[in-house]
Amino acid sequence: MTKELLHMTSTYAKELEQVLLGEKTEEEILLYLKEVEKHSFTPEEVGEMVQTIKNHAIYSPTFESSTLVDMCGTGGDKHHTFNISTAASFVVAGAGLPVAKHGNRKLTSSSGSVDVLEALKIPFSQDLKEHEESLQRNNITFLSAQHVYPALKPLAIARKAFGKPTIFNCLGPLTNPFSVKTQIIGCYREQDQEMIAQVLLEQGKKGIVLTGDQGLDEASLSGETKGIRITENGLESFILHPNDVGLEISPLSAIKGGTPEENAQTMVKLFEGEKGPIYDVVILNACLAIFASGIESTLKTAMGRAIQSISSGAALKVLREMQGGNV
Length: 327
Hints:
The chain has 14 helices and 7 strands. It is α/β, with parallel strands linked by helices.
């Protein structure tokens, strides 16, 4: 595996490398997290830490697509919503865009993407060839961070014990090993948006970094979503209201999630066409991914494409194919 050589200038990246090499005890990692929590990170520091992690991936994918998408949130918003970005990924794949969804188990939520996919009986492969074949065959694959980066396990244990969001919530979405071209990243802290957007811009990616109403790490129905769009021309701030794309306002409580098993059942019903606030928030987030990719030039046409993905049965077909035909 070819690794990008880093001349580390950041103390935090150097200490992270020591963590990944197994050179720090759990107590030392917890002390590191306390230091991290107090520090205001620059895009340059974040970029170094991202590359430090990516150098420890167990494989280097070769799959290439000019429209490859990833969408996920930083977590940490403590709103315990339905698995919005995971569901939206199926919708985006059904709309014709390949998706390499990079996710994790729950840390501060009720159900992480890995948890709900396991409840849907969608297996997580550790084999690169299977991931690339899934993208070719089903237009989607799901990557578990713990499989891609086993060296992160001690840090994951310490983060769970630490119990509070840190910069690593922001790093996770930036460490997809696939050559993703468009990223939608929801972050619970609006002040982190520009830093994440600058890193994406530096990586040559398109995308949207956003914060929903009440700090939701998804585009929201309960009020305004504030974000930054990343294009080849730079960064552009925006504010989006549900009414702007023809959706009704719904309270945050209407998109609350449950157990992984409950969320899995809700997802299937959604793809079977059951309408309601969860349907609305999923198509809203899928719409933003489609729009950010550039495959549709307006939010209106991107929304139409997201709706068509469900109404045509395409999103459900992707789900069933990923289940291997299991109900």
